[in-house]
Amino acid sequence: MAYVFDLKQVCGGYAYFSTFTLGNISEDDRFEIREPSQVDADRFLRALEELGQKAVFIESEGDYRRWLYLHGWSIVEPRFARAHMPQWLKQHKCITSSLRSYTDIEIASKGVLKRSYRGKAKREIHDRDGGACLVCNANDALTLQHVWPFSAGGETSSRNMVTLCEKCNQEYADEISPELYRMAGLHHGYEPSLIKDAPDRKAAMHRAAYLSANLMHTRCDLW
Ligand SMILES: [Zn+2]
């Protein structure tokens, strides 16, 4: 077994990374609390190959330091991780995006944590959706609906919000309805960035969907 991390950026004394988290620990109101989970290293490596990605193994401080320069995926021996990388293994409160992955609220912008969306941003979503309810095509009493419900930790952003009339809004209230993403022409279900030069695109999309639904984006102190 091993921990896995995808190091994206080292900046301002922080390491920004994604990690695999299996199942939530508990619900804190609308936020899910997630923490890194161990995976079967061989199976995870095969999954990454299917996505066209590579990983480095970390078993020593030399490996760790090299990886901080290289970035990308690493597969970390658990004893090493606990002894030398404890800050990478912490729990974080997360929100959910249309891509199904979890984002630590500490690195989410303030806007996506608020409930309402107003002014220019609201008009832009109405324009994208053709100025009409996506379901019944009504063009008055228009509202914005979170597709992944706000109460379930869904983010407030154009990629998670669609135009519905008041009546349809009430029918979809607090239901998770991915078809609304399709109706609005939004990408959803997995993170496209997970797929690099995948040999089999269909298998890769399936893998990416599974991985996205268990992926947490967060950061930790580097030193
Ligand atoms: Zn409607």
Defining traits:
binds zinc ion; DNA Binding (I), subunit A; two-stranded antiparallel sheet; 223 residues; single chain; elongated; alpha+beta; 11 strands; nine-stranded mixed β-sheet
Structural summary, described in words:
By secondary structure, the chain is of the alpha+beta class. The protein folds into two domains: 3-109 and 195-221, no CATH class; 111-183, DNA Binding (I), subunit A. The protein has eight helices and eleven strands. The strands form two sheets. A nine-stranded mixed β-sheet has the order 3-4-7-8-11-2-1-6-5, with helices on both faces. A two-stranded antiparallel ribbon has the order 9-10. The longest helix has 12 residues, at 201-212. It starts with a strand and ends with a strand. Bound molecules: zinc ion. Residues 133, 135-136, 138, 164-165, 167-168 line the site of zinc ion.
Q: So what's the overall shape? A: elongated
Judged by helices, strands and strand pairing, the structural class is alpha+beta
The main pleated sheet reads as: 9 strands, mixed
Give the overall pLDDT as a whole number.
92
**Distance between the ends:** 25 Å
Percent in strands: 25-35%
Number of helices: 8
Helical residues, percent? 25-40%
